[in-house]
Amino acid sequence: MPKSIVVNPKEVRKPQKLKIKEIPVNQYKPNFEKELKTFGKDVLKEMYSDMLLIREFESMLNSIKTQGAYQGIEYNHRGPAHLSLGQESASVGQCVVLDADDLIFGSHRSHGEILAKCFSAVHKSDDETLLDIMKNFMGGATLKVVEEGHHGSVKDLAMNYVLYGTLAEIFAREYGINKGLGGSMHAFFPPFGSMPNNAIVGGSGDICVGGALYKRINRKPGIVIGNIGDASMGCGPVWEGMTLAAMDQYRTLWDKEVGGAPPIMFNFFNNFYGMGGQTAGETMGYNILARVGAGVNPENMHAERVDGYNPLAVAEAVARKKKILQEGRGPVLLDTITYRLSGHSPSDASSYRTKEELALWQEEDCIKSFGAYLKENGVLTEAELSEYKERATEKLTHVTKLAVSLDISPRPSGELVETVMFSNEKVDRFDDREPEVLMPKEENPRVKAIARRKRFGFDENGKRLSGNQIYSYRDGLFEAMLHRFYEDPTMIAYGEENRDWGGAFAVYRGLTEAIPYHRLFNASISEGAIVGSGVGYALCGGRAVVELMYCDFMGRAGDEIFNQVAKWQAMSAGILKMPLVVRVSVGSKYGAQHSQDWTSIVAHIPGLKAMFPATPYDAKGMLNLALRGTDPVIFFESQKLYGIGEEFVESGVPEGYYEIPEGEPAVRRNGKDLTIITIGATLYPALEVADELQEKYGVSSEVIDLRFINPLNYDLLVESVKKTGKVLLASDACERNSFLHNVASNLTQLAFNYLDGPPVVVGSRNWITPAAEMEDTFFPQKEWIVDAIHERIYPLAGHQVSTVQTYGEILRRNRLGV
Ligand SMILES: Cc1ncc(C[n+]2csc(CCOP(=O)(O)OP(=O)(O)O)c2C)c(N)n1
Ligand SMILES: [Mg+2]
């Protein structure tokens, strides 16, 4: 428990001077005898050959992009190609000491890394394993293309498979390693440990930490490397990822048996440039990138600068660092210097650097110098060096022919994309081992306390029970969490103040006692990395629930939610699953930056499921649903609702397990004259409105709680609107572009002939959320809804309006933009 770490004023107020340990820079000393002993001649030759193949691969793409042809094969590639010419030694040197279960994540410039990692796995795997992977991956479709007419060894076939599969992917072909849905900047191949590459600079900086957490928590072998560029050190996710990876708790508070810190290496392929901005000297202040490690923890993240122009220097450093990571002493930061001889992309004219500088690096070209080194030491002859080059050209010519042909390599269909947006599976547990827990469920103090509560919110006389007697919305969430923790050993949950504090708004109170530290932990205040690492954890094969205290903090995790959580299932063509639930609470009382409902923003992004329960029964049943699925869910909760009891299911919230059917709205009150549709907490004022309409005006309202944002089944809504001919929609989201406008628009089209008038949307004002005392000027009030019905749906006999809800008012507000 953190309580065991006392913050002692006597200690922390003491004067002292921090001493920063030295950070090695280019300390590698070539020693051929040692290198030969470590690797042997064959591996040294393989390294040279792999570098050449990568060089040829990238040169081929460069030629296709700039001249429309390679070796007489014509092709117009419309997509991107961020080439890594010059950087081959850095990636091959890294991968030669990695095994297939070591994972690398990367960036937009990762062709070389994918190839190096896959080549290394091919060299290290036996024929049976290779055939097994090639036959089973994507139903063997990629293998079929390369095995046609192949007479060489299985390893050679596997090399062709990797080259063709990667190239076909870049050319958006169905037999590419991600069925053409990843493309140049996102391609990857998990069976050989090449994990998602990210077009968002620094995007892998926090995802990779999740991969390492997955390895550590689930005791899986292997380490994880996040390969990112030098300019990405300016990105929030990278800093947040390093912070999360360096938390003291792995060593101070987690069970020793878990193994210490997650085995993560942040490797910066430092080519000294962003696109055109020069990092050291212009856009960054670190001078030598490795220095940054000193700002993260007392070990300087074991940071080191290594000469990436020498593959053996890289291999030696990565092997040493791997050991540190395996011992749980990470994270590690490696500043691997290299140089991009090509432009950022083939259209880049290198206006930001001089020809002289380029010539200096060309003179020391890593392939030329490694070749010379091997020749000098008798590993390769001049003739063999030329032979290797010829073989590389031959191989690339072969796979390029296959990849450009539309007959051999067709394009994926649009329907394929639709089928991989969601995986829609149900998985009780992602591993068969016993879930690690600290006590039997029945002994949990909160479970015992809940057992004493009333699972329906009213007594026999219909009187509402008081707060401390009832089973609440937050209890429903707790039960769903507890259930999955005891079912799925891979399930973890984390976020800010998730442990002793009890999670935001006490939803997790009672979990600290039951769940060991490594399955439920407090994270650094790093919303981006909290979500991003959740992405990495989920796509590596585990289930994660991450919590953002307030919906507003989604802004901090914007890239992670909108570009990462949402997209990896589809960009992987369904190879990866994303069993990640992001819990966010919609607030109130705390003003402009703690009170927003952003359901509409989430609804706009393809690839996200979104749910918003409004009752304790649904809180439990919907979280159960989310926690058994394999898709990412943004799970909205309302702070206005955490304490409420169940008011609709008279038998009360069941003690056992159940799920709410996905996408189905719920009728909360039957009616015939008017349909009122709500999302979240607005259900309750809407019910009051329904009462008032009935009592005062004899209008019978059907009240429907939407519950789901995406996916959403419109059948029930359409049926209701067909019956009533009138519909009002209300929620706490700001009115402009509220998701309800989408629902209104669809209903207009789906039930146009049945509607007496256009649907009316009532939302919060298009303002900042003002102070608690002024919230009735902002959130939809009962009167607003009644007045809007009176003004825009049908006049309520004798009704006196107290607010302005006219069409003129809509025009006025829009004119002012408020
Ligand atoms: C978040 C984000 N900002 C900007 C870009 C545009 N962009 C693509 S690559 C790049 C430079 C990246 O430099 P570095 O991280 O050093 O990688 P390198 O390209 O040198 O391999 C930029 C600015 C982007 N893709 N993502
Ligand atoms: Mg760079």
TrEMBL record:
Q: Which SMART domains match?
A: Transket_pyr
| UniProtKB keywords | Oxidoreductase, Thiamine pyrophosphate
Q: Which residues form the Transketolase-like pyrimidine-binding domain?
A: 471-644
Question: Mind listing the GO molecular function terms for this protein?
Answer: oxidoreductase activity, acting on the aldehyde or oxo group of donors, disulfide as acceptor
Note the superkingdom of the native organism: Bacteria
What this protein needs as a cofactor is: thiamine diphosphate
Q: Which residues form the signal peptide?
A: none
Name this protein carries in UniProt? Dehydrogenase
